[in-house]
């Protein structure tokens, strides 16, 4: 187990090593759902929630797998747990807020194949975080993901009315903005040691 | 369909004759017409993350191709056995099994490569290209066609990763596959190795593709 302070873990996951802009995790929803500010923030919330659940589950699962000596089942068991967690969240949102359920649409079940979530579970295992550290790590990663998504949505809403050449419209423009955002986030590198 | 990549006049007859057969068609569409990265814009995460050198890009592409080939074959074989309601879960289990295999195989072959690719080998599980092909193609087609489809899509993916990796390595280190291309006085563009360089290089390639598509008639 490592002795990183909880605050350092949070800052590290949300700003310095932002999951989207530094690790390239969760690029699909980042490019797909960042068109409108309102949807972007809700998506960020849903992903953060699933991250929290799967982080706790992954911690418990890893302890169990080590205990019975079957670490090679790690990947398979993680993905099954994440898929069930997403299913649970989907049912929960459908019951509590049908409007939000409709707004998120197809992107809700697609959280399962969001690599940020599986990536989080694998990274926390590799780093050897304890339970509390894992939860904070998940919170930080979720916050970072939401922040990147909201920033991107804001920029894209502004650029909607700008005059851009036809060739760069769509994905090319989005990728260029993402590149510049990624450069800007490198400024946080001085905040802590890797 | 004639292959747009072939340029020579002599090749044209050969290619169009080859393209008559259907399985060749399944293969070629992944390479060019429906290239997973440049046309469908799928599987972005590994595409951007591991292409800081041509070698890493190639290794990642080949690993993905292997998983894609095996999962497409198995899904196609089992397409009449798997019930519709649990099909996605079954596909993910099949994919995860082969990814675990590849992960341990790469660790056995080269620890250095395994470290360079890091968690991204495990993350092949959530590569949308693989699940996408299982759902859109292999679950509806025969084994033979699914294998051709997987090979086409896989090599299309390898091609895209190589294209990105070569440009980034060339500008960032002045080399390709570790071989120095530019003289040592060359000032490296460090930004190309950094995450931002990945976004910019992919934007550049997509720009080239878009430009080619809109100006094809004028050329």
* Distance between the first and last residues' Cα of chain B: 19 Å
The arrangement of helices and strands of chain B along the chain is HHHHHHHHEEH
Tally of alpha and pi helices of chain A: 8
Low-confidence stretches of chain A: none
What value does the Rg of chain B take, in angstroms?
Answer: 19 Å
SS class of chain A: mainly alpha
Q: What kind of sheet is the major sheet of chain A? A: none
Intertermini distance of chain A: 17 Å
Q: Can you give the mean pLDDT of chain B? A: 84
- Counting DSSP E segments of at least 2 residues, the number of strands of chain A comes to 0
Sheet/helix structural class of chain B: mainly alpha
Sequence of strands across the biggest β-sheet of chain B = 1-2
Question: Tell me about the biggest sheet of chain B?
Answer: 2 strands, antiparallel
Descriptive report:
The complex is a heterodimer of chains A (194) and B (219). Chain A is an all-alpha fold. Chain A is built from eight helices and no strands. Chain A has helices at 6-16, 27-32, 37-68, 74-96, 98-104, 115-127, 131-159, 171-185. The mean pLDDT of chain A is 86. With 219 residues, chain B is mostly helical. Chain B has a domain at 22-166. Chain B contains nine helices and two strands. A two-stranded antiparallel sheet of chain B has the order 1-2. The longest helix of chain B is centred in the C-terminal third of the chain and has 31 residues, at 143-173. Classes of the chains: A mainly alpha (194), B mainly alpha (219). The A-B interface holds A 21-28, 31, 72, 75-76, 79-80, 83, 112-115, 118-119, 122-123, 126, 166-168, 171-172, 175-176, 178-180, 182-183, 186 and B 41-42, 44-46, 48-49, 89, 92-93, 96-97, 99-100, 103-104, 119, 122-123, 125-128, 131, 191, 194-200, 202-203, 206-207, 210-211, 214.
């Amino acid at each position: 187990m490592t002795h990183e302070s909880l605050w350092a873990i949070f800052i590290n996951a949300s700003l310095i090593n932002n999951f989207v802009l530094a690790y390239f995790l969760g690029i699909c929803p980042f490019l797909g759902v960042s068109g409108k500010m309102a949807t972007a923030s809700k998506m960020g919330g849903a992903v953060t929630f699933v991250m929290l659940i799967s982080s706790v589950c992954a911690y418990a699962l890893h302890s169990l797998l080590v205990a019975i000596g079957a670490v090679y089942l790690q990947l398979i068991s993680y993905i099954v747990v994440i898929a069930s967690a997403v299913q649970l969240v989907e049912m929960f949102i459908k019951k509590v807020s049908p409007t939000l359920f409709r707004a998120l649409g197809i992107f809700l079940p697609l959280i399962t194949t969001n690599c940020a979530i599986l990536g989080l579970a694998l990274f926390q295992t590799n780093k050897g975080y304890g339970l509390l550290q894992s939860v904070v790590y998940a919170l930080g990663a979720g916050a970072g993901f939401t922040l990147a998504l909201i920033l991107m949505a804001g920029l894209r809403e502004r650029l909607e009315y700008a005059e851009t050449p036809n060739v760069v419209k769509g994905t090319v423009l989005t990728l260029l903005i993402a590149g510049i955002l990624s450069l800007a986030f490198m400024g946080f590198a001085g905040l802590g040691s890797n | 369909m004639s292959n747009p990549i072939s340029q020579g006049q002599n090749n044209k007859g050969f290619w169009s004759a080859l393209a008559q057969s259907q399985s060749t068609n399944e293969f070629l569409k992944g390479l060019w017409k429906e290239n997973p990265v440049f046309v469908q814009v799928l599987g972005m995460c590994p595409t951007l993350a591991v292409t800081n050198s041509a070698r890493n890009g190639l290794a990642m592409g080949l690993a993905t191709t292997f998983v894609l080939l095996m999962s497409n074959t198995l899904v196609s074989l089992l397409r009449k056995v798997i019930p519709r309601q649990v099909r996605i879960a079954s596909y993910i289990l099949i994919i995860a099994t082969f990814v675990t295999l590849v992960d341990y195989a790469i660790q056995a072959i080269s620890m250095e490569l395994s470290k360079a690719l890091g968690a991204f080998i495990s993350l092949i599980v959530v590569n949308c290209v693989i699940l996408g092909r299982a759902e859109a193609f292999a679950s509806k087609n025969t084994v033979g066609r699914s294998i051709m489809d997987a090979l086409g899509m896989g090599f299309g993916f390898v091609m895209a990763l190589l294209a990105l990796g070569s440009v980034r390595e060339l500008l960032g280190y002045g080399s390709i596959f570790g071989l120095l291309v530019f003289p040592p006085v060359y000032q490296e563009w460090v930004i190309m190795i950094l995450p931002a360089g990945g976004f910019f290089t992919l934007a550049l390639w997509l720009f080239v593709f878009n430009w080619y598509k809109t100006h094809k008639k004028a050329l």
